[in-house]
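My main concern about presentation is that the manuscript never shows what a single data entry looks like. In essence, backbone conformation is discretised, so a fold becomes a row of integers matching the chain in length. An entry of this sort, consisting of the sequence and the corresponding backbone structure tokens, reads as follows:
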Amino acid sequence: MKNLIRVVFVMSFAALLGASALAQTAVVPPPRPGDSGPSLAVTMEFIQAKLSEQGSVNYMSYYQDSASGQQWTEQFSDEISNVTANPSSCRIDYHWKITLDGAVTLDQDAGFSLRDVQDLAVMTGEMHQKKVNTAAGVPTQDSRIDPPVFVLVVRRTRNAENPFVFTEEEMANRVAKAMVHAVELCGGGQKAEPF
């Protein structure tokens, strides 16, 4: 009887080892599903066209500082031009010009690799201005923007950002959706930590 129990135990143990060995056998993963949605070339063409269509976005910002009680206004013109969305390099390049109360405060070429994009956010002009003010050390400054604008903020590695100003929230969201798709096709986006 003891030998029978020992034989059954050995056979069960051998079966367990065999199953374990089978479970560890390398299996070829199933083929990756095809990318859904438009191709990278079509997506980049859409982004380039829609960013170019924005032209110069003009708006007034009415400020109030809750700490000092001061109030003032500033007239902005934010212009993106010469947009190139290149699918082969996964880059978006453009010229960015900002005018504040008639004086040019920024006039430079800019761009970024879609592989460096961590995430994107669309926010109202007021929300974006509050974020900028807080980062500049003046969180007591609030603003009201007229006419309303919407800012697509492309956040990249090392806390770098590229803001794009739109007159319509729907268009800002459409471009954001296209950029998310392009980032995915280019291999960018936040990577989950392996452990």
